[in-house]
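Exercise 7.
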Amino acid sequence: MNAEAAYLFGHSLLQQAAYDLLLPTERSTLHHHAFQLLDQPGAEPDSLVAHAMALAADPARDFDAAASRVLGKAAVAAARRYDQRRVLELGVMLRRLARPDPKAEFELRQRYAYALKTLGDTDACRRELAQAANLAEQLDSNLMRIRVGRMLAELAADAGQAEKAEADLLRLLPLADTLAEPQQKISLLGNIAIMRDLQDRRDSAEAAYNEALQLAREAGLRAEQMVLIGNLGRLYFDSGRADAARRMYETALAMSIELDDARYRSFWEGWIAADDRRRGRLAQARERMQQAIRLARQVGDYMVELNWRVDLAMMDAEEGRHADAARQLEGAVAGALSAGALSHAQKWRGQLDEILARQRKPGG
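Solution. The predicted structure, written as tokens, is:
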């Protein structure tokens, strides 16, 4: 046995028992030593979370601000992995801190709100955004005001209020002009284009996309260009310009491969699959959709993976494979329920019921 292995616990229960035997002051000292050893440049924030929260729980230490900064960094890392469950866990931990750092608290609340929105809990999302908005005013940060405003506009659009959402986003543009970097203005213009598209104002939507794309090109922002080109393709598709849409999708797909961005590559593969399906190329559509599923799983974006699985199920149904389609949809419903995405589960349950009804028909 090597020296390191000699100090390992054979079972987690034995480790917990040894931990429980320590005096609170001894535990705090060990957590502090561990935190100092782990808190190095490039360290994974998740490795610090347990130690930071233990130190914050020690009344003899003023550690709430430092702990909140650790939680904020861990939330950013989790969001980049598209791990919304972890973001929610970190948001719950934040509530145990009496005096968090305001900037770190904003970061975590905004990402916590996004996770709630992703899972369909819009009421809780709005409550978190209200807290984040208060912090933005407290810190007098235009960047924070824009981030909150964009999410509120998305919620308005989800509620069928695209016109209101567009007006709210237009009011944010002057704030974006105060920032040194152009990313926020580019994102706002992209969001404005989406709201105009929802109102069937496609010419003005295209103008907003092109303005954003021009800014992204001038700034050399390749990732932003990729997203805008793909979304412009979606606009063309909705306008009946299928060939132009296809060219945009393929351009965006090539850029996602160049940028090694698996998440957006999953989007473009899925959208091209939808186009193949519309053109009757079902074999190609199926192959691309399976690739989109693999990419979504690779980055851990569970809800996107489930969405693509539902699309694959609908392809099965179109080809008369109702049993296969039902199995896919049953898995998607169960996955959505386990993730807390009740609105998705309800929608997919309706699609499943339709397919089961077809399956029960003679010859189904």
